[in-house]
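User: Here's a structure from my thesis project, written as structure tokens. My advisor, Dr. K., wants to see whether a designed sequence matches the one we expressed. Can you design one independently, without my sequence as a hint?
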């Protein structure tokens, strides 16, 4: 980096390069003493000598007070010699230039228990007053986080990253063994509100990118549908603004992109919400079919009328009085707007969302034993870990009707 930017030959900035070479000489000399492999140790010694010679070759005058050397501009061949030694060491470690590209999609693996020490080492050369006190508190926080059992599967996973990703894609998007189709229900109800937007955004992005890569590699789409219940929580119109919290903004924009571009990659979206007026206009503008259940709120009724043809005014007046399991189907899925009745499910197949039995419980007709100690113990052990897993085919009906008759699927 210093060579590419020309710091090694810039007046006033070559002292920075001299400091890097001096630090490299000391650090790699210490590292060579700890390495057991003779070949690698000889390469580290060569790098140490090359860095020392490059630094010495550019020395000019010595400061009388500090006894430190001032430096002239460095020759290209001296700096390039150090770079060549580094490349040789990286090659011996099996890390070539292409393999060392680091990004969020190609992270560089490292021992997580070394993170705190690495942060402290970086702070040694950090400019600025009181940097050490901030690093000390940061190190304590890192150590505390890494000791949490809930982060063990992330900080020190037992399964390699590639295998874990392939397993996730197979379980939640589908594999060859499930060619007949599958439904996966992710219950995020116990995810803390501070991170739920991040979790949902990651799931959406992984699904979208997986289907993009599938089409690129196979030349065909893999038809998949994402159903987002309580959509106003994740694609609320306020989350699209620049002043929204970062996690919520990322979540909303992720699904806005899926709504705009997902269809050509085989990814469809179903949004279910009780408050359509609060859903992002970008998302609603991409919907081609609406299933409208009972809507009581005046604001939501007006918003729905603005989304459908003007000729449906008489039919939409019935929205506040629609009975259970009745809906109005509008859009691409029906040649003409039509009133439909959602088939009734057997009691065992229904989602667990009945109205609370307030009177029966309060009058003692239905017992409700309470064991808060057991709940508190489970709460502390799991720290709100959500249950998620593939469901059987019957769960498809449960997802379709999960919100109850008052929900408005989009």
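Assistant: Designed independently from the structure alone:
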């Amino acid at each position: 980096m210093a060579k590419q930017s020309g710091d090694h030959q810039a007046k006033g900035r070559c002292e920075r390069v001299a400091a890097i070479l001096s630090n490299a000489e000391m650090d790699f000399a210490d590292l060579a003493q700890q390495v057991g492999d003779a070949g690698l140790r000889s390469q580290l010694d060569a790098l140490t000598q090359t860095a020392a010679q490059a630094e010495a070759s550019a020395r000019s005058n010595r400061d009388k007070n500090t006894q430190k050397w001032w430096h002239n501009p460095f020759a290209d061949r001296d700096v390039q010699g150090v770079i060549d030694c580094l490349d040789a060491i990286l090659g011996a470690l099996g890390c070539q230039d292409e393999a060392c590209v680091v990004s969020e999609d190609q992270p560089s693996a490292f021992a997580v228990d070394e993170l705190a020490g690495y942060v402290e080492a970086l702070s040694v050369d950090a400019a600025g007053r009181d940097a050490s006190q901030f690093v000390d508190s940061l190190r304590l926080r890192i150590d505390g986080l890494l000791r949490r059992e809930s982060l063990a599967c992330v900080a020190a996973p037992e399964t390699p990253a590639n295998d874990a990703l392939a397993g996730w894609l197979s379980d939640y998007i589908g594999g060859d063994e499930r060619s007949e189709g599958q439904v996966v229900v992710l219950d995020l109800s116990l995810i803390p509100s501070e991170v739920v937007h991040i979790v949902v955004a990651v799931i959406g992005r992984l699904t979208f990118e997986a289907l993009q890569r599938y089409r690129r590699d196979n030349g065909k789409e893999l038809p998949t549908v994402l159903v987002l219940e309580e959509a106003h929580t994740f694609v609320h119109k306020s989350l699209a603004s620049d002043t929204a919290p970062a996690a919520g903004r990322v979540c909303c924009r992720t699904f806005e992109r899926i709504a705009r571009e997902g269809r050509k990659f085989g990814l469809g979206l179903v949004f279910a919400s009780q408050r359509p007026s609060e859903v992002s206009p970008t998302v609603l503008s991409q919907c081609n079919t609406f299933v409208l259940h009972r809507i009581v709120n005046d604001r939501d009724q007006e918003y729905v009328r603005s989304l459908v043809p003007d000729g449906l005014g008489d039919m939409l007046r019935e929205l506040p009085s629609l009975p259970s399991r009745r809906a109005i189907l509008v859009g691409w899925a029906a040649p003409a707007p039509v009133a439909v009745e959602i088939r009734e499910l057997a009691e065992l197949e229904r989602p667990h969302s009945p109205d609370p039995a307030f009177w029966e419980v309060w009058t003692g007709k239905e017992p409700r034993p309470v064991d808060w100690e057991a709940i508190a113990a489970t709460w502390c052990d799991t720290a709100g870990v959500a249950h998620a897993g593939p469901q059987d085919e019957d769960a498809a009906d449960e997802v379709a009707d999960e919100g109850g008759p008052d929900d408005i699927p989009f």
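When you compare it with your expressed construct, this may help: Residues 384-410 have pLDDT under 50 and may be disordered.
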